[in-house]
Amino acid sequence: MEAQTEQPVVYPSGIAKWILIITAVSCAVLELIDTTVVNVALREISGNIGATVTEIAWVVTSYSIANVIVIPLSGMFSNLFGRKAYFTGSVALFTFASVMCGISGSLWVLVFWRFVQGLGGGGILSTAQSIIMDAFPPEKRTTGLTIFGLGAIIGPSFGPVLGGVITDNFSWHWIFFINVPIGVVGSYLSWKYVENMQGVEKPRMDWWGILFLIIGIGSLQYVLEEGVIKDWFESSEITTFFILAMIGLLLFVIREFSIDYPAVNLRLYRNFNLAMGSLMNLVIGLIMTGTLFIFPLFVQVSLGWTATKTGAFMIPGSLIVLVGMIAAKKAMDAGVNPKIIILTGLFLTVLYLALLSFSSPDSGSHDLFWPFMLRGIGAVMMIIPVLGLAVAGLTGKDLAQAVGLSNMLRQLGGALGVALINIYLSNENAYIRSNMVEHISPYDPISTESITGLTQLFHGAGYGTEDATMAAYAMMDGAVTQQQLLLGYNHGFIMVGVVILFCVPVILLIRYKKGENSGGEMMGH
User: What is the pLDDT of residue 262?
Assistant: First the structure.
């Protein structure tokens, strides 16, 4: 390939630069909020449009599948349409689809528009990251990474809070309508301030590569989203989609390495640090989304918190991210080995999980406050250096490609994390329950004494002999279930913590030479 003519790279400056960055971050945060904002409103939506619990899950699944398909292709689309047109078009599509979601009157119309919204959202996320990073020269790129990393953490954390407040005070339609004013302003500002990348030629379309990616990644995301509901490989549907995913991904990899105009440039991963950075993005998605998924369930099911209380509790944990962000940026700017920063974040996250694993029925928000603070700081100290590592030394269209791949892996990691935690919790709950129930029998003096006491209590309240005994056993069953769930969540927290420790060798494999700003140099091409 011909070397590009030496054109000086012009970076935005002054007020225009910060309008550009605020626009890109706001649109990215909007997209990330929408991945989680709907979850808390699913019950109300299903009641309103007459959908079953299984059917309503498609409102989340369709968005995730569209998202994960478009994200890795966003670099190619930016080159094809021009970054200005593609980013503005993605924001406009996301905004229009939000309006259509809000006025949907039936399940499958809503699912269709959620899919369209996901197509727009996927284009926003990676393009926003490359816009922010390209706004800074390489030596100041840490600032861009920090700004995007902040949005990547705060967005998913604020989703459930916003969803809970809107659902409690208005109606579920406003979860979608609230996107419209931000989307309209974002579309205008992105058209005015986003610039096309310099020296980028229109790519040849790799239609086969796109098709294999859609089949492979779309099927895999479906398996991860729907596997829990359909009992995994007991379902012929899940088995079929899993086989499709494996075949699609294999053909996709073969195709992308065998042509010189790939839709997704996998050759970038010949650089060891880029490959390690992307692997860590997968792990971070697994850790962050997995632990964020389990926490609201834990406090609502085991400790009896309301959705609003859960959301309000999570806000300080999201705001403490600012402290971690400043610490991580100062350390990176001072030339501290990124491996040390990532390991510090990792150990803080493990400590958070270890502290939560000692929860009891008496645990309150004061017991969980400091562990959640540790999670916020730990998360940002992991994310910012890893974001830098996954795009180290890249600019222009290579940067856009690497950003798309690393974001896709983080999304897949999130889906994988939720799926694995669901499998673990269902098996662990069954195991704990069988162990606990063994001790409730006429031959166990403690359980017999408890049931006798409860029976007398119900007798005293006017129950007949048989009804009092049944009520006593029902109350005992409720107590066993509550303790079983609490123990299941405690074991889940510590298990995720142990799994995270297995990442330490991967982090230590990262190659770092003092003086490199973002963890590695790009290998030639």
Answer: 81
